[in-house]
Amino acid sequence: MIDMKATGQRIAALRKEKNLSPMALADKLGVSHIAVTSWESGETLPDITRLPSLSAALDASLEDILGDAAFSKIISGASTSDNLSGFDFSYDFTPEEITNLGKVLTPEKADVVFSQLTPATIEHISAASAFVSDSVISQLMGKYTGELSFSALAQVSDIISEDLFNDLAEQVEVKDSKELAKGLPAIQPHRRGRFITRVADDVAPEDVVSLAGILDPDSLEALLDKVPMLEGANSLGTLSTLSGVLPNNSFAALVDKVQSIEHLSDLAPIIAEVPAEHHSKLLSKVEIVDDYSDIIALAPFLASEQLVELSTRVITESDAGDKAKLEAIIAQKSK
Question: In Å, what is the CA distance from 219 to each residue of 83, 188, 195, 223, 272?
Answer without folding.
Answer: 51, 14, 9, 6, 28
